[in-house]
Amino acid sequence: MIALPKTNQIDSIVLANYILKHYGPMSHLKLQKLLFYCDAYCLAYFGQELISDKFEAWVHGPVCRKVYNEMKGASVLYTDMAYSSINGIDEDITFDQLAIDVKDLINDILTNLTTWSGIELERATHRERPWIEARHGYSEAEKCYVEISKITTRDYYRMQQGL
């Protein structure tokens, strides 16, 4: 058997399903914040994005539109959605193709942050520069689809971690 090359990126839908499969049912709100933090800390520690999709500065925090569009029928904002296999893709095999240090970081992030509620994660992102900067000029409840800068995200979380 040929070993697959290790990578530092994963498809956002596959990562979302990996999270639901291994960390249990959760709200769309919570899942979106976990995706954001996984990407943010990979940017901070490795200087590379984990997922290529952009996050938008929505009212309730960062949202990956691709994941939102794919899973919007499975959950409203606060109700839990459960894991459901997509097109026969094995999330574990795909996740295993990530470099070991990337997998370790993601699992550490998820182990820590899945103990938080979706509301707690939302509040955290609302206090952080990447989301605040992207929403500049928008009121608290105003719809906003401005992309959150990956450069700002990388720099902010690097600084937070003392890197």
Descriptive notes:
52% of the residues lie in helices and 7% in strands. It contains eight helices and four strands, in the order H-E-H-E-E-H-E-H-H-H-H-H. The strands form two sheets. A two-stranded antiparallel ribbon has the order 1-4. It has a two-stranded antiparallel ribbon with strand order 2-3. The chain has helices spanning 12-23, 28-46, 65-71, 91-96, 100-113, 118-126, 129-134, 150-161, and strands at residues 26-27, 55-58, 61-64, 80-81. The chain has one domain (12-161). The radius of gyration is 15 Å and the shape is globular. The model is unreliable at 1-5 (pLDDT under 50). By secondary structure, it is mainly alpha-helical. A hairpin with a 2-residue loop joins strand 2 and strand 3.
The whole-angstrom Rg is 15 Å
- Helicity level: 40-55%
Largest sheet: 2 strands, antiparallel
Mean pLDDT across all amino acids? 89
